[in-house]
Design brief:
10 helices, Arc Repressor Mutant, subunit A, 2 domains, about 250 residues, mainly alpha
């Protein structure tokens, strides 16, 4: 798409498309996700979207300035789907775990598009709502603002990095994905204890664990580290000052 700007009030298409639908941002985003899921990244074009929608491709400029603008909308859609039905419980650790797993699952539901969008920052309503919610969980838990921001950064980057990596694996053609999974048995399972004692000793566990995403356990590690940061002031307060050890009771 070329860069164009159409005033907001002029965006709505008054006539239905050939399929009888009225164009909207929602319809275009849903159609784009379906096309990318079926045909990969190359489907994200004005021509293919127009054909799928039964609309003149130029009409899409009323809703999105460019394909990159549309891609940002897809990224924001993933974040929005992750937040559907989420409510804070007041348990900061449970709340962050739920948000993280929801983000990961949202991207895995459409891996082809997730590979394109997981690394983007949109500044759009769903994303800003997620940032506000996560920071709110951390600040209500008692984390100082500077610590809350650092934990937020690590939490989101971890969730999106695993979402992108796992989505890329799921987006592989089935033969390639199956070949990757077979490597653990075909290659690692045949290594000698003499040359690779640690792999040989742990192989059954390793092969079983590598079938699944490492994200849930990595998330728990991050939450453990965050909890340790939250407990630091209390631990410092329990340490007896060096001078206090030498004090004796009077009498």
């Amino acid at each position: 798409m070329a860069e164009r700007v159409v005033p907001e009030g002029q965006r709505r298409r008054r006539r239905p498309t050939k399929q009888g639908a009225v164009l909207s941002q929602r319809l275009i985003v849903e159609t784009a996700l379906r096309l990318v899921a079926q045909h990969g990244a190359d489907a994200l074009s004005v021509r293919r979207l127009g054909a799928a929608l039964g609309a003149d491709p130029s009409s899409l400029y009323r809703y999105f300035r460019s394909t990159d603008d549309l891609l940002l909308a897809l990224a924001d859609e993933f974040v929005g789907r992750a937040q559907e039905g989420w409510e804070p419980t007041g348990d900061w650790r449970a709340d962050l775990r739920d948000i993280g797993l929801r983000i990961h699952a949202s991207y895995q539901a459409n891996p082809q598009a997730a590979v394109l969008a997981a690394h983007r920052t949109t500044g759009r309503p769903h994303e800003t709502a997620a940032v506000e919610a996560i920071l709110g969980v951390l600040r209500r838990a008692g984390f100082p603002d500077a610590t809350a921001v650092r934990i937020y950064h690590a939490f989101v980057d971890q969730a999106l990095a695993f979402a992108a990596q796992d989505a890329a694996a799921r987006a592989l053609p089935a033969p390639a994905r199956e070949a990757d999974e077979a490597v653990w048995l075909a290659s690692y399972g045949t290594l000698s204890p003499d040359t690779h004692p640690n792999i040989a000793a742990t192989f059954p566990l390793l092969a079983a664990d590598m079938r699944d995403s490492g994200y849930p356990f990595a998330l728990e590690l991050l939450l453990d580290a965050a909890a340790a940061r939250l407990d630091e002031p209390a631990r410092r307060g329990r340490v007896t000052a060096p001078g206090a050890r030498r004090r004796r009771s009077p009498g």
